[in-house]
Amino acid sequence: MNPTIELLKSHRSIRKFQDRKIPRELFEELIRAGQSAATSSHVQAYSIIHVVNPQNRETLAELSGGQRYVAECSDFLVFCADMKRATDAAERAGAEVVRGMTEQLLVASIDAALVAQNVATAAESAGLGLCYIGGIRNNPAKVSELLRLPDHVYPVFGMCLGYPDQNPEVKPRLPLTSILKEDYYQDEQDAELVAEFDATMHTYYQARSGGNKDTNWSEQLKPLFTSKLRPHMRDFLRGKGFEMK
Amino acid sequence: MNPTIELLKSHRSIRKFQDRKIPRELFEELIRAGQSAATSSHVQAYSIIHVVNPQNRETLAELSGGQRYVAECSDFLVFCADMKRATDAAERAGAEVVRGMTEQLLVASIDAALVAQNVATAAESAGLGLCYIGGIRNNPAKVSELLRLPDHVYPVFGMCLGYPDQNPEVKPRLPLTSILKEDYYQDEQDAELVAEFDATMHTYYQARSGGNKDTNWSEQLKPLFTSKLRPHMRDFLRGKGFEMK
């Protein structure tokens, strides 16, 4: 196993950061590494908002559900799916463009994710830590207003970046046989594999240094699907021009 | 700049592969590296179909728009957004789950993308090449049928993996100032930056070794948005239980 694979396998979210800034030169290297990710048909359908204003950082920490590290980390990014730039460019070049297709929502969301994961890997390779902030979708309209996002642009997730001030364990993942399937989807063994993973996660939650609790994977999932998590997303996206046509 | 950032910045799609198989041990390492990516609320809402059957590889090459490397590469993966496993697990644990939310479509699509980008980076770190196959969404219903994907699972994209038998140039990316914005979205300079990038891409297309052509970025984008690219996606997703509620 080479050092890069070793690095990827050692990922864990960092939520406590040193009071130390990432040098601008390194920061830009992370973004350039992000840009090098594959992009659907070269569309590059994303924008990254680098939130520097301290008051806006505080507001975003609150809007994300009171996640203090959003305000406290060295650099906070909001990765946006951006179908505006490319469709505007095609329009200026003389095309009568169609917007609001479901396919475009997917392309832009996936593009943003691929870029972000490269930024994450680049950051960790430089000794930095990071945490994705899906909580940005708790209040996407307010976030969009704060960041002045136009139509055809929406905030997919945030990312905290900085020098780690904690060293949490790597969180276990589902058994390989559960997520990797040969030729056909089959899940006859899934209940068994999930039960095995529930036991793994129970042990993890009991033993971990950052606060132990008596739970497992399936139990942790329950509130995510019983309540309609972020039921505003459809109407929010439609309002931003992602009409899912 | 460290070797991992160097690696990320050297990415280019590989579409011609040596007739040489990736060893199983390395292949599994790539998947494990993929699994280590961040995942929304630990949901791990993805499955990977490893397509081994040669006839199915041929069929998928055709369904993706006649992309021969789908059949010819060492290993072909289909990354699926999978909301079945996690919702089934929560249901077995006693939850009355809600499915079909727009948020769930996003979570699962993004999870699949994060995993895939880690697999891509791991592969390149081991001297392999890869190519994402968004063309899998040309015929998602037939792909789903072939791979026997159940409801709440959909094929996001494919990935060809193998030992490169070509050495294409790195494709330019948009100027950093176009995709990175401080505090607020602003695009006053976008037309100018895109014009600059069009010139860059024109030079690239004229000079590249793999077939030159007289075009630029904006021109290349035009057919993507004038025709309704993949207009079937909404109804396809709804039919698979991603109702975008």
From TrEMBL, chains A, B:
Keywords: Flavoprotein, FMN, NADP, Oxidoreductase. GO terms for molecular function: FMN reductase (NADPH) activity. Coiled coil: none annotated. It comes from the Bacteria. Belongs to the flavin oxidoreductase frp family. This is Oxygen-insensitive NADPH nitroreductase. The lineage of its organism: Bacteria, Pseudomonadati, Pseudomonadota, Gammaproteobacteria, Pseudomonadales. CDD domains: NfsA-like. The keyword Oxidoreductase applies. SUPFAM superfamilies: FMN-dependent nitroreductase-like. It is an enzyme of class 1 (oxidoreductase). Residues 9-163 form the Nitroreductase domain. NCBIfam families: PRK10765.1 (NF008033). It comes from Marinobacter panjinensis. InterPro entries: Flavin_OxRdtase_Frp, Nitroreductase, Nitroreductase-like. Its EC number is 1.5.1.38.
